[in-house]
């Protein structure tokens, strides 16, 4: 039985052969970056085992059939950069396993009867005031450079986070527009979901999915919080999966530009979506952009971004490396101990090969002192390759993700052996 069919990056033309839509054993169906025409037939609902459908960058026309709802195993639906039109079928939102949805550069409209949160329909200013009790400070979750975030509860009982932009701050209006442009076109389990938005001349706000467990910064630095090494690895893999999607899963690469613990949120299952796209950049075809003003956070910015305003996907790799160091040492790059030539990177690198126990978060040492060195040597090697000064020498995001998953497997194997020896 055929389970994987991958014919991407060819010069195939014409209609997609009808018999392919009846291969019920298919789990991975990839015909991206060809020149296929025609429509998607209703018979594609027969692909009941399908997990990945990748048809982006073709010339497929017509509507998405409502039979999409039959594909209950679907995790990735990538139909961007075609000539699709019409109303998105309501059944697309019944796909409970869907992690990645890309429909950009088509002429699709949201379903007319979609519930709040699925079509990004606007919400009124007065509805937001009621949901947040007039933006009461009791509901304030946090403040950022471009605005404040409040907890809100709509009349139907839905709890949300409301990001209100301070329009007096330079760049806030542009930030709102960037967020709307990017977030309405992307979907991934590790990216914060936009519920809706509110926009008038004097008020701009985004309504986001509420994260019940706060953010990574709270879990690293607040009393009575603890993350095991396995949890920290899982969170870092979630972050990496999101960034890999931004860099490679969209029609143009997206660079987040401001990865830091307060922008890593945690839901009730401790899954870590990446949030706050206020200064994210859509890259041009040359995959590099020069900014006249840098807006990232000191300590997390790559050298070429901080000094020269050069933005590329490698900027996120560097920030990710700093975030990885911080997560396992519980030391901020702006900690007062780092003065002069001593910075977080040099402090970490200077611990190799024998001083790892001196820099690892003491809470991790107390839990797993015997195995801490072997686990962290693997992580530190990865960090070194993420944070070299020259962007061309850094790993790309896909390789980082592969390496991190291997480390996670090694950690799990060590833990399993430990349990067997008990």
Automatic annotation (TrEMBL):
Primary localization class, coarse: membrane
Entry-linked InterPro entries: Kinase-like_dom_sf, Leu-rich_rpt, LRR_dom_sf, Plant_receptor-like_S/T_kinase, Prot_kinase_dom, Ser/Thr_kinase_AS
Short name of any one Pfam family annotated for the protein: LRR_1
Keyword list, A-Z: Leucine-rich repeat, Membrane, Repeat, Transmembrane, Transmembrane helix
Keyword Coiled coil part of the UniProt annotation: no
Sequence intervals crossing the membrane: none
Ranges for domain Protein kinase: 135-407
Name of protein: Protein kinase domain-containing protein
Species the sequence originates in: Penstemon davidsonii
